[in-house]
Design brief:
Chains: A alpha/beta (about 230), B mainly alpha (about 230), C mainly alpha (about 220)
Order of helices and strands of chain B: HHHHHHHH
Order of helices and strands of chain C: HHHHHH
Number of domains of chain C: 1
Number of helices of chain C: 6
Strand content of chain B: under 5%
Oligomer: heterotrimer
Distance between the termini of chain C: 37 Å
Largest interface: B-C, 29 and 29 residues
Structural class of chain B: mainly alpha
Radius of gyration of chain B: 18 Å
Distance between the termini of chain B: 27 Å
Strand content of chain C: under 5%
Chain lengths: ~230, ~230, ~220
Amino acid sequence: MSVVAVDGVWKFYGDYAALRDVRLEAAAGSCLALIGRNGAGKTTLLRTIAGFSRPGRGQVRIFGQEPRQAEARRRMGFIGHGIAVYDELSALENLVLFARLYGLADPRRAALEWLERTGLERVRNGLVREFSRGMRQRLAVARAFLHEPSVLILDEPFTALDDRAIAVLQRLLREALASGKTILMSTHQLREALDLASHVALLNRGQVAFQGAATPEMVSDPGYVYARYGEA
Amino acid sequence: MRFFHQVYVIAAKDLRAELRTKEAINAALAFALVILLMFSFAFDPQEETTREISGGLLWIVFAFAGTLVLNRSFAREQPNDCLDALIAAPIPPAALYLGKVAANFLLVLAVEMVSLPVFGIFYNVRWTAQFPELMLVVALGTWALTVIGTFFSALTVNIRLREVMLPMLTYPILVPALMGAMLLTSGLVMGKPIGPESAVWLRLLIGFDAIFTAVSVLLVETVLVG
Amino acid sequence: MRDKIVYALGLAAALVIAWNTYAISQLPDEVQQGAVFKIIFFHVPVAITAMIFAAVALIASVLFLITRKFQFDALAVAVTEVGLAFLAANLVTGSLWGRQIWGIWWTWDARLTSALVCWLLYAGYLMLRRAIEEPTQRATFAAVFSIFAFLDVPIVVFSIKWWRTQHPQPVFWGGGSFPPDWSRHFLYNMLAMVALGVVLAAVRYSQEESQREIDSLRRMAHAF
């Protein structure tokens, strides 16, 4: 059974269809890179999969459940365009907050562990509003991984990351994949993404124009998929 | 039990964030004091007249200053897309909502507890005559204000003219509760305990609070997750 | 075909109102209040029509939230707008009546005050709609607000009534007798007002549907 199953999903804004009959699947331990030009619907699709909005038609299943069910939410981690941590709280306070919301047994220990894994243990009591951009990004990553999610949904995670943050994220994603977790990632940074991706899907005007395993040609020439399946 | 723990976590988070910056509460306090000051120019009150209109005066101060706090409620989740993370977390949206209501309730109550003595000093009015009953009325009225105001804060968080829309939508809905609170408060400040005639307003406040808390809890998920 | 029925109904309603108004003007003046008492033939029917439309708006809003079909959203906004106009007519006729009888344009009479607060409530609904661009969010949030507003209406009416019972003021109208054969004219006006409201709502409804189609075409055109 696939971990993430998107079946015939349409998403409407008024009468306008941002997503049309999208069918996607991701198996355990796979990493799906979702590519497509701006406005193709990548963010809409990922947010619908993550449960932030309901599809107009069709359904999304994460581990066989609807994304809004508590169990599915517990097993999912999301990084969107914002860092989703509070500027007025410290790094530690932020992570302890989310650890509590996710019902972790020892929130403080989990928070400290993830601060260390993202290289933020020295600034754990610093307020996020004083952090540099890279530090904020790393904290966002820590928040997403904190509760050991089995499914990670990342919307352009490499955009606007500095080199250190990119390295941290790639390392964490590789470890996650190795332990059988599933990743759905939209990206413009094809090279970084295809480094990790086992599968690729191209979204064009709300429809899936191509879906399949990542091939060596794609890795060596990221523009290949666009040229072959997308519109110029 | 777990539900109430989650409500507590959200409320604690909101309170900690607010107390660190004190933006909303300072603005609300300043606004309350300014209104009280301006009213003293508008009326040249004898003590008796002031006590008769005290209910109206105080609840206008509470409602207007409270709106500043309520506006921040969901607005504080916007800057880094924090609302996404809260919605994605496995807590019921009702817990998220009630946590915020609880935090707002305490913040608005704090503004009110400062405003009351200032009112007493500025207008030379002894308002402590029926203190326990006054506190009950203040609590019930403030709960109505924060339940409706927090819900509409969620409704208006990312629409145009948010700061204007929130009061415009909230105050008409609150008319019965504000009316009841004003009438009860005026009576209590004048030293009259709540009698059989004014008890109807107490029942109105309690009923209003119960109905709209229930409705808000039921509908909050529709607003947050659409 | 449907348009023709709607226009025919509108014409019929207008004719009935015109004829009825003439008939009413021929009736004898009321003993205590004189000719102005006849404003009741308009003042009350528009209020009842507004109330009916508020109930329809609630049902449409709930149905939208359940089915997510935009036809219900269009119905809700059409009915609310027309109801708001009728409620405004109620406020204006009430004010004119008071000006004639008491010499003042407004008093915080229980019924007028309730009408005013309800008017503000539903005006808020329209303001909310105007502030939200995206159609699905607009329809959803408006529907939720409509539920809040409708639940509040009875509470508002009762609380203002109790307030006025405890702090009585001269009642704005009431008093004045209503002979039984006048009920006929009242009924005609009542039915005609409802028919007129239905016609206006139907026109607004189809306008809303057309607007939605235009908006989505525009969005599609700009998307790529």
